[in-house]
Please model this.
Amino acid sequence: LGIENKQGQIGVDEAQEVVKSLSLKAYEGGFKIMIIWMAEKMNTAAANKLLKLIEEPPNNTLFLLVTEDEEQIIQTIRSRCQKLHFPPLPEDEIAAFLEKNENCSKPEALKIAHQANGSYTRALHLLQKDSGDQQFETWFINWVRSAFKAKGNRSTVLELIAWSEEIAGMGRESQKSFLLYCIDFFRQALMLNYKAEKLVYLEPATPGFKLEKFAPFVHGNNIKDIIEALEEAIYHIERNGNAKIILTDLSIRLTRYLHKKAA
Model:
């Protein structure tokens, strides 16, 4: 986003630009269409600035609000919109597109389609090896390995603190993306542990790490605590808490949860 350590948002200045743009005449005298991409990023001031305009748009004016997280849009705007939900794409359709448009072999297309989890954009990133997941995977595996060793081992606690400092040095958007990746990784391990292999698309590439060996440590007795801890960390990072403190606390809690025995 080019915002360094800040968080992405649509502020009141951008809202003013929307109002200004819609005050102009349509180029060819037809409809005016305003697309607001990632509408969940509107802060309260921006949302309030656009509320009246969205509620009573000028003649022949349409608003398209595109979002990945509908619940983050304030209720007063959501209640004035007609909702259209777009489900994830089927694997066979993604694979067919990759074969046709990207000259991808059928076995590779099927593998990437499975890992894409219904997103064609993600499939393209995986094909071009620029999804960012490789770095996330490295951070995650280093993290859980240190967490396993940390019980009764003071020197390993220093590794967790060093890990927290490394992630804290990234931008807040990257920190949130990484923590969402961690949630997904734990869920994949849980599904593998409970024999839902058809729903597992994650294929770690790190040498020496096997998802099937990690999966037994993620179970019904600790998954709720793990997910809540990760979501709580995202919540505090969104509110500009000290990332180093948040991630260090998360790491210590993870150590405790991973050593919980299955019921």
In short: The two ends are 44 Å apart (CA to CA). DSSP finds twelve helices and two strands in the chain. The chain has three domains: 12-78, 91-128, 133-258.
